[in-house]
Design goal:
Blueprint lengths: L1 E3 L11 E4 L13 H14 L1 E6 L2 E6 L7 H18 L5 E5 L3 H14 L17 E3 L7 H19 L7 H12 L5 E5 L1 H7 L2 H7 L7 E7 L10 E5 L1 E5 L20 H15 L6 E10 L11 E3 L5 E3 L7 H12 L6 E6 L3 H7 L4 E5 L3 H14 L3 E3 L17 E2 L7 H10 L6 E5 L5 E2 L9 E2 L4 H12 L1
Parallel strand pairs: 1-6, 2-4, 2-5, 5-6, 9-11, 9-14, 10-11, 13-17, 14-18, 15-16
Antiparallel strand pairs: 3-4, 7-8, 8-11, 12-13, 15-18, 19-20
Helix pairs in contact: 2-3, 3-4, 4-8, 7-9, 8-13, 9-12, 11-13
Length: 468
């Protein structure tokens, strides 16, 4: 979707959306009395109203106080609903308001709703709508576009099947996306990973015919405000069968191409940080492989020596994401980071606990960092819910034959998984389990169906606020 910050002289459109502060503003819109009465009733009943008459579209919304997260989200969802109405009948649409903030929220929802993954259709659906315009010069169209582009890139990575997006291809796609940016990308291939003795990543890869990769991205602007970098780590399991602990739940493998949603979130966040010129030094680490039961696949009962030298007893090969993430977290210690954040579609427990409405957040970072993540989630409606991170949960990970085991008890699986990861980083740590909102089986407003890009807008907002 193309955004334009101002009118072009050759653009004439009867398709307009108005975001007004009061119903009194309707008198300024050159509407008939019949239209005004109809809109007033619509605003009273639901806060918004649309009229689609012979290809001429009119949309009106009276947002609530923009300081309230729910009111801001309502504008995004209104933007998505307008897109659904006009996409097939209008070639262009303009949105007007004296509030630049309201327009930006509308554009975010509108443009995210325009995303579709149609790569594999032999016949593409024709898109009539070509662009959206505004005359409000205060609207930061470029920033909206960068955030939308990054989120949609994350969605595409998640939606790609493993028949295309295996681990080497994921690294290639990251390199290709960053080629014209100031992001440095380095890819470790299997021989390098073996020389580093990344036992967790290599163990998960043993059942695969494709080699693993370990991708490092670095965004280091000259005006970076942090002396020590922020390290982002994303789970890059491009497909997960569960390994020899084959997934038992019916249909649970059908969407396991999405198990690299954490990697997608972190690489897209780094890309957005560069495009938005966020003045923070960021290093992003992506350990990647698929998890299959073939060949010499690692097995329950195995003891694996990790990158940091710890031994891990494997009780379940479907707890593979934490094995790969652990090596990446240990590797991240070399940077002596200010803060470490990981994102992963890590546990079904997270989804069962809070559903698809939010991600789970926990960690040993300062309360102000965790609270800042919660606030960023509220602002973007890419929300997070804080879970306890008490050391007592570590008791669940004690092994009788190794330093720790890769599986906790039957309860609080999302927390014991986070505590497992904590063993491998020496620095302030925030863990995001995005298993619930990373992939939707049916459309949900601007989040659509399939990969949602969960975590991208959340983390971009978190980093923007941190830079301030």
């Amino acid at each position: 979707m193309v955004l334009y910050p101002e009118y072009h002289k050759d653009i004439q459109s009867n398709n307009t959306v108005y975001l007004i502060r009061s119903t009194k503003d309707l008198s300024d819109l050159k509407l008939s009395q019949k239209q005004i009465k109809y809109i007033e009733k619509g605003l009273k009943d639901g806060g918004s109203c649309t009229i689609n008459n012979y290809g001429k579209f009119l949309g009106v919304m009276k947002p609530g106080k923009l300081k309230q997260p729910a009111d801001r989200e309502a504008i995004r969802k209104f933007g998505a609903s307008v897109y659904d109405e006009v996409a097939k009948v209008c070639d262009k649409i303009q949105v007007e308001s004296d509030s630049a903030d309201a327009i930006e929220l509308f554009l975010e929802g509108f443009c995210l709703a325009s995303y579709s993954f149609d790569k594999y259709f032999t016949k593409k659906k024709e898109r009539v709508l070509k662009g959206v315009y505004t005359s409000n010069a205060k609207v930061n169209v470029e920033d909206v576009q960068h955030i939308v582009d990054a989120t949609c890139w994350a969605r595409t990575l998640v939606n790609e099947p493993v028949s295309y997006l295996n681990s080497p291809q994921l690294s290639k796609d990251i390199e290709a996306k960053c080629v014209d940016t100031d992001i440095k990308v380095e890819v470790f291939e299997k021989q390098k990973i073996e020389s580093l003795k990344m036992g967790g990543l290599l163990a998960v890869n043993k059942g695969s015919v494709d080699p693993p990769t370990f991708t490092i991205m670095e965004w280091k602007p000259k005006n970076a405000k942090n002396k020590k970098p922020i390290v982002l780590v994303g789970k890059g399991i491009v497909y997960d069968t569960g390994g020899l602990s084959l997934k038992p739940t019916a249909n649970s493998m059908d969407f396991m191409k999405s198990d690299m949603g954490g990697a997608a979130a972190m690489v897209a966040t780094t890309y957005a940080a560069c495009k938005l010129k966020i003045p923070l030094h960021i290093i992003t680490l992506i350990p990647s492989t698929d998890n299959r039961p073939g060949g010499n696949a690692y097995a329950p009962g195995d003891v694996i020596t990790m990158f940091n030298g710890m031994s891990v007893e494997v009780l379940n090969t479907d707890a593979e994401g934490r094995m790969a993430l652990a090596d990446a977290l240990s590797y991240g210690n070399k940077y002596k980071p200010e803060l470490v954040i990981d994102a992963a579609t890590l546990t079904g427990a997270a989804a069962r606990a809070i559903g698809t409405m939010a991600s789970c957040v926990m960690g040993n970072a300062k309360d102000e960092e965790i609270n800042a993540m919660i606030e960023a989630g509220d602002a973007t409606y890419d929300r997070v819910v804080k879970f306890p991170f008490w050391d007592e949960y570590k008791e669940e990970l004690k092994s009788t034959i190794a330093d720790i085991k890769n599986l906790g008890g039957p309860n609080a699986g999302m927390i014991t998984a986070g505590k497992f990861l904590e063993h491998f980083t020496d620095y302030p740590f925030i863990h995001l389990d995005i298993a619930g909102p990373a992939f939707f089986h049916k459309k949900d407003s601007y989040r659509g169906q399939g990969g949602t890009g969960a975590g991208v807008r959340l983390l971009v907002e978190f980093l923007k606020r941190k830079a301030k």
